[in-house]
Automatic annotation (TrEMBL):
Native source species: Actinomadura livida
Classification via PANTHER family: INTEGRAL MEMBRANE PROTEIN-RELATED, PILUS ASSEMBLY PROTEIN
Pfam families the UniProt entry points to: T2SSF (PF00482)
Keyword Membrane: yes
Main location: membrane
TM stretches of this protein: 6-26, 82-103, 109-126, 247-273, 285-304
Keywords: Cell membrane, Membrane, Transmembrane, Transmembrane helix
Subcellular location: Cell membrane
InterPro entries xref list: T2SS_GspF_dom (IPR018076), T2SS_GspF_sf (IPR042094)
Protein name stated in the entry: Type II secretion system F family protein
Length: 312
């Protein structure tokens, strides 16, 4: 039985058809994978432009961890429009640069200490942004209470009143209220949406306002009168907080100025006597002196921060 030989054009046609089928299959697989990534990304509330690339995949992997979710929540609360992966990459690069620079001027152990300090500095910056954004939101609470009071007095339901407040108020109150309004549009109960708002920006003032809204929604009562009273009280508290912050600001600035003068003094010594810091930091006595000086500076920051933290 002899084998059947096919003409060359038929063989080429079969190869082309097979190649076309393989390309179509690979393309269909890639399209399906891209659709899956888009669905996952939309569930994480990111845009289509952010759904591709190595940094996006790294960001998704980091967000799956507990520390990554915590950092992402803190970045969102601080109002920083930055990915978790980008933030960690910036912190890593800065730490490497600190190790290189400090390692040239001082002993290598201080370069590692500088890298650790960079990490704390980045996290401290995020925390300061959180506190500043929370303070800005608290400063807008009297106006928010008045807007809700006027909308409720006009006969509008709480959902519509929140939407009106989101449109009228500037950020950060406007942005946070828009998120709350979006949650209400998706069917989330008013109580849960307001509690989520309180968890994003925790403060006693906002807690009182949310409790008033929740209790009034459940048990009834004169919500308009309560909101107007809260608006007046919050305005007085805002003025008191501003006065306290102004009085205590001098001590905080003085403490930072002393620390910066100490660092500038070390840099000047190294300029006057090149290599002096490296020689000093390479000996146990010098390391002990620098460690004690740094510890005292950090302790002074913590003590002054504790003394100037006055609850109003």
């Amino acid at each position: 039985m002899s084998a059947v030989s096919l003409p060359l054009p038929v063989i080429l046609l079969i190869l082309v058809a097979t190649l076309a089928l393989a390309v179509w299959g690979v393309g269909d697989l890639v399209t399906g994978w891209a659709q899956r990534n888009r669905l996952v990304a939309r569930s994480a509330l990111v845009s289509d432009q952010e759904m591709t690339g190595l940094m996006w995949r790294l960001d998704v992997a980091i967000r799956r961890t507990s520390a990554g979710r915590t950092l992402a929540r803190r970045l969102a609360a601080s109002g920083m429009r930055i990915r978790v992966s980008t933030f960690l990459a910036m912190m890593t690069v800065t730490a490497v640069v600190a190790i290189f620079l400090i390692g040239r001027w001082m002993a290598p152990v201080f370069g590692i200490a500088a890298a650790v300090g960079v990490g704390f500095a980045f996290l401290h910056y995020v925390r300061r942004r959180e506190e500043r954004r929370r303070e800005e939101f608290i400063a807008q609470l009297p106006e928010l209470a008045r807007v809700l009071s006027n909308a409720t007095h006009a006969g509008l339901v709480m959902r519509t009143a929140i939407e009106i407040a989101a449109d009228e108020l500037a950020d950060p109150a406007g942005e946070e209220l828009r998120r709350t309004a979006d949650a209400l549009r998706l069917g989330q109960p008013v109580d849960d949406a307001l509690r989520d708002l309180g968890e994003r920006l925790p403060s006693r003032e906002l807690g009182v306002l949310i409790s008033t809204l929740v209790v009034s929604a459940r048990a009834g009562g004169s919500l308009v009168t309560a909101l107007r009273t809260i608006a007046t009280t919050l305005e007085e508290r805002k003025e008191i907080r501003r006065e306290v912050k102004t009085i205590m600001g001098e001590a905080v600035v003085t403490n930072w100025a002393i620390g910066l003068l100490g660092i500038a003094g070390l840099a000047m010594v190294n300029v006057i006597m090149p290599g002096a810091l490296r020689v000093m930091s390479g000996k146990p006595a010098g390391q002990l002196i620098l460690a004690v000086a740094g510890g005292l500076f950090i302790a002074s920051l913590l003590i002054i921060r504790r003394m100037t933290r006055i609850d109003v």
